[in-house]
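Recall that a protein's primary structure is simply its ordered list of amino acids. Everything else, from secondary elements to tertiary packing, is in principle encoded there. The following example makes that idea concrete.
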Amino acid sequence: MFRIGFGNDIHRLEVGIPLTIGGIQIESELGAVGHSDADVLFHAVTDAILGALALGDIGTYFPNTDPRWKNANSRIFIEMAFEAAQSRGFSVINLDSTINLEAPKLRPYIDEMRSKLAEILQTNLSNVSVKAKTGEGVGAVGKNEAVTAEAVVLLAIDRAAQE
């Protein structure tokens, strides 16, 4: 059995706040505003996994009104979602994701993001895609007001785990 999930996230950008994307600290004057560490990529991947399992969204488990999640490392969120998948017999077949950010350029960080995601999701690096796009000066992303991310994940029943 296969399950596909889609996730997306957006955070406002402000001066003087850290910018963490894909678990990597990005050198930038602007950072993402959020209750947790505001890691848009990790949030989108978490939602994609939860969506594939029909378990709701990230806010169901980690509401921004709960002080436990204030400044939390978003890796916790993906790990919880992945554990939910594993407990149901699923493994990750592949992940495709896109980050939308006008600046700085993310190419120097992409390989490390992919490695972190592959490690967390216990899959081969070749199964993890992270792409970066700019807003070409259009909209909130293009005007350096926001960062967004989208992710699609394909899960499959892990037959080896069931035997």
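Helices lie at 40-52, 58-61, 75-87, 107-120, 139-142, 159-162. The chain has one domain: 2-162.
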